C-alpha cells in the first residue's frame, strides 16, 4: 500500500502530514504528487472532497524550500473561484507548511487593499487569490507576475460557470511561458479541454472517477410541497421542528434572493439562523461561517457557495429548499453532512415543477430516494395565502355591474316593445284571422304620421300636438336647482362689473360688427 513517504515529499512536509494524522494518500494525491515533484504539468480530474487540495499543496511546499520571493514578485500563484475556497487553501498551507518559513498572501474581494499591499511588499512565496482581485492589484501596479514558477488553476469547471475564463486567459499572458501548470477540474467539458490544451505542455493526466454515489451514512428523503414559496417555507419550518436530533443544519437555495427571503422568514419565526451568499462582504461571510462552526448559529441558509470546498465536519442535517438544477450539486450539498463516518440526514423539498431535476439526480446517484410523507399525488390542496383569500374585484367595479344590469333591462328598443305588446293584444281578439295584425299595423301607421308631421313643420313653429300640451308649472322663486343652473349660464350679464373695466366701456368694444 502506498504511503506519503513513498511519494518523494520532503521531510518537513512528511512531518506536518503525520502530525495532521494522515498516512495513506487518496488516489488523486498518489497520482498527482510524484509527477508534480518532477516539474511536469498536471491535468487532474477529481471532485471536491477527494483530497485534491493536498495533491498540489504538498508538492508545492517541497519545491518552495529552495529560494525566496522578492517584493511584489510572487513565486507561485493559485487561482480559486470563490473566497471560501481560497481561504480554505490558505488554511491548508498554514497546516502543512508549519515547518516552513513561507510568506502566504491571500488576495480576495471584500478585504482592504492596504493590508494586502503590505503582504505583497514583503514578498509572497504563495499567492492565493480570486481572478478579479488579482487583476485589480495588477492594474494598480502592485504586482509583477514575471517571477511565477508554478500556476495552479483549481475548480476550472466552476470558473467556467462563473465567467472567469476570460480573466484567467488575461492572467496567463502575464506569467512566463516556462512555468509549471497544475490544472484541476471536476468535469472535462469541451470548453475546459480547450483551455487545458492552451495552458498545459505535455501534461500528466490523472483522472479519478467523480463520485456519483452518496455516502451511506446520510439518510436521504424527499418532501412533497406546493410551488408557492410561502407553502415551501411552512413545510420547511415544520420539517425542522420535527427533527429531534438536529444539532445544526445548512439550508441550500438556488438563488441569492431566495437566501435573503428565507433568512428573514426563519428569523421572524424565532429560529437561530444566519445567511451566506456571494453578495455579502468578506468580513460578514467570515463571521457567519465562524459562528456556524462554533455552534453560535443553528441554521445556515446558503447558496451553492457553501456546497463545495467548505470543510465543516459536524453538520447533522442538510435541507434543500430548492432542488439543485445540476445533479452534481446535489451530491456536493448533501456531502456537507455525514462526514468522517458520522451519520447525517438530508431532506429535499420537491414540487411538481422540480420533477425533471429529481429524475436527473436519481439517475446520477443510481438509486431511488424515498418520499417522507407521500409523493406529489398525495399533496393536500394548497392553503390560501392572504392575497389569494381576498375577494377579487370585479372588472370595472360597481359602475360596470350597474351598466351590465341596465343594459339587460334595455335589451329591447321601445319599438320592439310596442310590437310585442301589439302581438299580445291581437292574440286575444276573437275576430282575428291567422297572419293578421291590425293593432300592430295601426301602431306603425301612427308612428309614420308623427314623423311626417315633424318633417313638414317649418322651423320655429309649434305643431298642434305640441300646442295642446299643458304648460309646465313655474318653479318656485327659491328653487335651488334653478340657481345652480343659472350659475353656469354664460349669457347672464346682470352680475357685478368685471374688475379692470370699471364704469367706462372701451371704444373698441362699441364698434358694431358686420352683419
TrEMBL record:
Residues in DEAD-box RNA helicase Q domain copies: 2-30
PROSITE patterns on file: DEAD_ATP_HELICASE (PS00039), HELICASE_ATP_BIND_1 (PS51192), HELICASE_CTER (PS51194), Q_MOTIF (PS51195)
Motif (Q motif): 2-30
EC number: 3.6.4.13
Stretches assigned to the Helicase C-terminal domain: 238-387
Enzyme class: hydrolase
Family: Belongs to the DEAD box helicase family.
Protein's name in the database: DEAD-box ATP-dependent RNA helicase RhpA
UniProt organism field: Xaviernesmea rhizosphaerae
Lineage: Bacteria, Pseudomonadati, Pseudomonadota, Alphaproteobacteria, Hyphomicrobiales
